[in-house]
Specification:
Layout (H helix, E strand, L loop, with lengths): L9 H10 L8 H37 L32 H4 L11 H4 L3 E4 L13 E4 L4 E2 L8 E10 L8 E9 L4 E10 L5 E8 L7 E8 L2 E7 L13 E8 L4 E5 L13 E5 L2 E2 L1 E2 L4 E12 L8 E8 L2 E3 L6 E6 L2 E7 L8 E11 H4 L5 E9 L25 E7 L3
Parallel strand pairs: 13-22
Antiparallel strand pairs: 1-2, 3-4, 4-5, 5-6, 6-7, 8-9, 9-10, 10-11, 12-15, 14-15, 15-20, 16-19, 16-21, 17-20, 18-19, 21-22
């Protein structure tokens, strides 16, 4: 027991301390002021002790804290959303270097030698060549493919150029390919690339004989386009310098090739015009004991659209029938059946006609056979001076469908 029994019990003192009550009760006004000051000091000290106790207990409280319902929001206040944490709890795997590296496009730059010894996929040729020129997978050797050993047509790769046609950063290949023979042919430009397996594949047909294109003479690369030199006339016997030539550009659209530059059509060819010739039978009259004379009257016409400079007239007569007065520019040659006369006539304007009178002399015995003798004549423009087997030479072509009236023939009738 404590020595002083008047000392309050410790529990009562602590209770009084923590509750702010007086530890002693002085008497009078001074005692009241003392109690008031004591209580104010006690509250401050108690508040500090409680704050320290709360801070020390915070982790344990947080671990057992149950969130309460949030307060109701005003009607015009948007419902808040929980922000996405800036650092996700689940770690994201770092992509491997190969997944972020772009694969370079295949190299479609194919040399002429390699292309000329590859198997290429060729689109179908025009209808008139389908039986002569192979399509589909065609094997080339030394730049040539032949449908059959006995065929006179051959497919040849004549030119190769390179450009980044599809703009993928790698060049592709354009090739000028012809399927042609003595009497027919077609030229076209095809584009080739490689796939990821390094196999040569066909991108598509750049252009062929479409519209007014009669032949393709050459190709060249310009930027991401292929420029193609096209002609408006082609074929065996076309006079040098006759065809008109243009460069037209073609570009890849993503689905095929379209023209992207150059003229889209040829103007009228100044060397093309529609000539015609007509004439009738020649009635001979006696002018001596065994001879007779007559006049071959020929009408030369130019239906246009161009002026014909130096039109060329060819006339074949049987043996012992001659022209006694030739035009200014004529030459003669012998044929198995008689004589051939070749004459260059004055220029003939479009829409104009010209009459040529040729005086003839013949033996009446030649004219009096069972079958009448005949004359044969042709009118052309652009004769080269070198004759073909039929003796007509190399004329300028005429408009399609206009060739039928370039020849005429008639009878040489004996004197009555």
């Amino acid at each position: 027991m404590p020595d002083n029994d008047n000392t309050p019990h410790l529990d009562d003192i602590f209770t009084a301390y923590t509750s702010g009550g007086p530890l002693a009760a002085p008497a009078g006004a001074a005692a009241a002021q003392h109690v008031a000051r004591r209580r104010r000091t006690t509250r401050i000290v108690a508040t500090g002790v409680l704050a320290i106790a709360v801070l020390a207990a915070t982790p344990a409280i947080a671990a057992t804290w149950t969130p309460q319902d949030p307060p109701a929001l005003p009607a015009d206040t948007a419902t808040p959303t929980t922000p996405t944490p800036s650092n996700p709890t689940t770690p994201t795997a770092t992509p491997s270097p190969s997944a972020t590296t772009n694969t370079p496009p295949p190299d479609g730059q194919i040399g002429k030698t390699e292309l000329g010894n590859a198997t290429l996929e060729l689109p179908a040729w025009p209808e008139y060549l389908k039986e002569h020129c192979p399509a589909g997978r065609v094997k080339f050797s030394d730049g040539t493919a032949q449908p059959a050993s006995n065929s006179e047509l051959r497919i040849t790769i004549s030119e190769v150029v390179h450009a980044d046609l599809d703009q993928d950063g790698a060049k592709e290949t354009a090739a000028l390919i012809n399927c042609s023979g003595i009497e027919m042919g077609e030229s076209r430009v095809l584009a080739f690339d490689r796939n990821v397996s390094d196999t040569i594949v066909t991108m598509g047909l750049v252009t062929g004989h479409a519209g007014d294109i009669a032949w393709i003479k050459g190709i060249r690369a310009k930027g991401t386009a292929v420029e193609v030199e096209v002609l408006d006339a082609a074929g065996e016997g076309v006079v040098d310098g006759f065809p008109q030539s243009q460069w037209r550009a073609y570009s890849w659209s993503g689905k095929g090739f379209v023209q992207s530059g150059g003229p889209s059509a040829f103007p009228p060819n100044p060397r093309v015009t529609d000539l015609s010739i007509s004439g009738g039978d020649v009635q001979f009259v006696p002018d001596g004991a065994d001879t007779a004379t007559g006049t071959l009257r020929l009408t030369i016409g130019n239906q246009g659209p161009q002026r014909a400079t130096d039109p060329y007239l060819r006339v074949d007569l049987p043996a012992k029938v001659t022209i006694t007065s030739l035009p200014a520019k004529c030459e003669t040659s012998k044929t198995p059946s008689g004589t051939r006369y070749r004459c260059w006539l004055p220029a003939l304007a479009a829409g104009a006609d010209s009459v040529v009178n040729l005086p003839l002399s013949a033996s009446q015995s030649v004219l009096g056979g069972a079958q009448p003798s005949q004359w044969d004549a042709d009118i052309v423009w652009g004769f080269t001076g070198t004759e073909t087997g039929d003796g007509k030479g190399w004329p300028y072509p005429e408009p399609d469908g206009a060739e039928g009236d370039n020849s005429a023939k008639g009878n040489l009738l004996p004197a009555p």
